[in-house]
Design a protein that fits this description.
The complex is a heterodimer of chains A (493) and B (101). Chain A is built from 15 helices and 19 strands. By secondary structure, chain A is α+β, with helices and mostly antiparallel strands. In chain A, helix 5 crosses helix 6, helix 7 crosses helix 9 and helix 9 packs antiparallel against helix 10. The N terminus of chain A is likely disordered. Chain B has 101 residues and is mostly helical. Chain B has a domain of 43 residues: Histone, subunit A (Orthogonal Bundle), CATH 1.10.20. Helices cover 37% and strands 9% of the residues of chain B. Chain B contains 3 helices and 3 strands. Chain B has a two-stranded antiparallel sheet with strand order 2-3. In chain B, helix 1 packs across helix 2. The mean pLDDT of chain B is 88. Classes of the chains: A alpha+beta (493), B mainly alpha (101). At the A-B interface, strand 2, helix 1, strand 9, strand 10 and strand 15 of A face strand 1, helix 3 and strand 3 of B. The structure holds zinc ion (ZN).
Chain lengths: 493, 101
């Protein structure tokens, strides 16, 4: 079948029904059930101990911070928190699991029944969150292809085994690959706001599997679904789901039935490939983890954590629109990172001009910001630094063009705006007699345009303006120059 | 065996497969009978009315004890790998996992 047409997913009279299972690593210092460090990139098998290796006689002890982060994630996703939740063993054999079971939650997960609202071109859409539960990460398998015959082997590193994860399960509420991407972006923003995870897909701290099926538009029944795995970026999620939706549509149109199966996204070939048929449902023989008694949380504790949550992105977006009069788009750019949103608000307050602050933060500041994995991690100037610059701009000491070049130098040298303006003599010329001299000289030197303007072709004023600015080396106050030219040439307005 | 058993031989084989147990025919027959008897015993328990009763998950009346998020020393790599049948470059080395397809 043809490669996925990313731009245009047209399923005709069918619609896609998509649900996501997202695994997110929590940013704790130590693992979920032992004191091993969670640092990324350590040499293999150097962050393991008898507990996370599953050696006989060891007992897991739950990490308080992991519980706090999981509950905060649940609260931020609008979930109800289970006061008495249970851990369970999920049993399966795979070398990435040293115990041959994963400690997870099955019945009574920590968080249930939440929702995330996403903004789509068709308007707001509410995506249900079925559950959020705590579980431990598995180890990492490295498949070596050191030789095609004979000694092929799999290498196992258990450093990741036991790192705390939350699994977030959505309802099948998403209707397109694009909605899946919007949901993941909103989820990432929320989790970063509350500081429970770095949410870096490239380091594997966010992973996503999807269930997808098709049905006739308007139907409420669910079609046969496939599960798509191995999508390593938001872009891969969109492409894999687009491909899979088109594949299923072709199967259905050819009169065949979609097979319930697990399919892996093949990034190199941009296709999904069947991994295994789900003839029998996965049977993990879940049972309550005998080594962990129920996790009991008081309402007081839960409410204490709720009180610690910052203002969440959706609320902040709304407030930016309502109280600063920003367009929706600007508000969503500024709130996509807590760091940027905090910075903008501080500058807006300092300068007393939200529109000016938002233009500069969205344009110049974000242009020079340092990003990692799509997240702004460092801003190029301090709040005071930008406020000082914008203050000079507002007072008319420098003009827009000079301000941009000053900011560039501030970023490069770390020096203050006033200092740079003084040193480079960038103060705007606002002195009337000085400007008059410049304007008169330009008028005298350009008889032809002046004649045109007097004859009513006022467009040529732009040319004269440019000449004055050039003569002043860009320092003339453009507003005043315009007024003076109009005055001298007897042109209205 | 005169009386009908709760579990079929296929049930026993499936459970054995999930648990990665290789059973002889004799063992399968034995387990089919034993496991069926256990299920029957549970059937009797199910007759007890438990509506409104919290399920018992643990016999100790305790709540989870939490540990502060503090890093403690891990084992040295040499010790971690000491009992591994095969290692390479700090990794456990196991027979290649075939990607299912
Ligand atoms: Zn450990």
């Amino acid at each position: 079948m043809a490669e996925a047409q990313l731009e245009m997913l047209d399923l005709g009279d069918l619609e896609a029904v998509i649900g996501l299972e997202v695994h997110v690593e929590l940013a704790t210092q130590s693992k979920l059930f032992c004191g091993c460090a969670t640092t990324f990139g350590a040499p293999p098998n150097t962050q393991v101990c008898p507990v996370c290796l599953g050696l006989p006689g060891t007992l897991p002890v739950l990490n308080a911070r992991a519980v706090e982060y999981a509950v905060k994630a649940g609260l931020a996703l609008g979930c109800q928190i289970t006061e008495r939740s249970l851990f369970a063993r999920k049993n399966y054999f795979y070398p990435d699991l040293p115990k041959a079971y994963q400690i997870s939650q099955h019945e009574r997960p920590l968080c249930r029944n939440g929702a995330v609202t996403i903004t789509t071109p068709e308007g707001l859409r509410r995506i249900g969150i079925v559950r959020v539960h705590l579980e431990e990460e598995a180890g990492k398998l490295v498949h070596s292809g050191d030789s095609i015959i004979g000694s092929e082997a799999t290498h196992v590193d258990y450093n990741r085994a036991g790192i705390p994860l939350i699994e977030i399960v959505t309802a099948p509420d998403l209707r397109s690959p694009e909605e899946a991407r919007l949901f993941l972006e909103e989820l990432r923003t929320i989790l970063r706001y509350i500081g429970v995870s770095d949410v870096r897909m490239e380091e594997g701290s966010l992973r996503c599997d999807a269930n997808i099926s098709l049905r006739p538009k308007g139907s409420t029944a669910l079609g046969t679904k496939t599960e798509v795995k191995n999508m390593n970026s938001f872009r891969a999620v969109v492409r894999a789901l687009t491909y899979e939706a088109q594949r299923q549509a072709e199967v259905i149109r050819s009169g065949e039935a979609v097979r319930p199966e697990t399919r892996a996204w093949d990034e190199a070939r941009q296709v999904t490939v069947a991994m295994r048929a789900k003839e029998e449902a996965d049977d993990y023989r879940y049972f309550t983890e005998p080594d962990l008694v129920p996790l009991v949380l008081t309402q007081e504790r839960i409410e204490g954590w709720r009180a610690e949550l910052p203002e969440l992105p959706a609320a902040r977006r709304e407030r930016f629109v309502a109280s600063y009069g920003l367009p929706e788009y600007d508000a969503s750019v500024l709130t996509s990172s807590r760091l940027v949103a905090d910075f903008f608000e501080a500058v807006a307050q300092e300068v007393g001009d939200a529109k000016l602050a938002s233009n500069w933060v969205m344009g110049e500041v974000l242009r020079w910001a340092k990003t990692e994995g799509g997240e702004v991690v460092e801003l190029p100037v301090s709040v005071q630094g930008l406020a000082e610059l914008l203050g000079l701009l507002r007072q008319g000491v420098i003009n827009q063009a000079a301000a941009k070049s000053v900011l560039e130098e501030m970023v490069a040298s770390g020096r203050g705006a006033r200092e740079i303006v003084a040193e480079r003599g960038l103060e705007q010329i606002s002195d009337r007699s000085e400007l008059e001299a410049l304007v008169d000289r330009v008028i005298a030197e350009n008889p032809k345009p002046v004649e045109d303007i007097r004859a009513g072709q006022t467009k040529a004023i732009g040319f004269l303006m440019g000449q004055v600015m050039r003569l002043s080396q860009g320092k003339a106050n453009p507003q005043q120059v315009r007024e003076l030219l109009h005055e001298r040439l007897g042109v209205g307005g | 065996m005169s009386q009908e058993l709760r579990l079929t031989r296929e049930d026993v084989e499936r459970v054995a497969r999930l648990a990665h147990l290789g059973l002889t025919d004799e063992e399968k027959e034995h387990l089919q009978r034993d496991l069926s008897l256990i299920l029957e015993a549970f059937d009797r328990l199910r007759e007890v009315l438990t509506e409104g009763v919290e399920p018992t998950t643990h016999l100790v009346p305790q709540e989870s004890v939490l540990r502060p998020d503090t890093v403690r020393p891990s084992l040295p790599q040499g010790q971690v790998l000491a009992n591994a049948p095969e290692t390479r470059d700090g990794f456990f080395r196991v027979p290649r996992i075939l990607e299912e397809s």
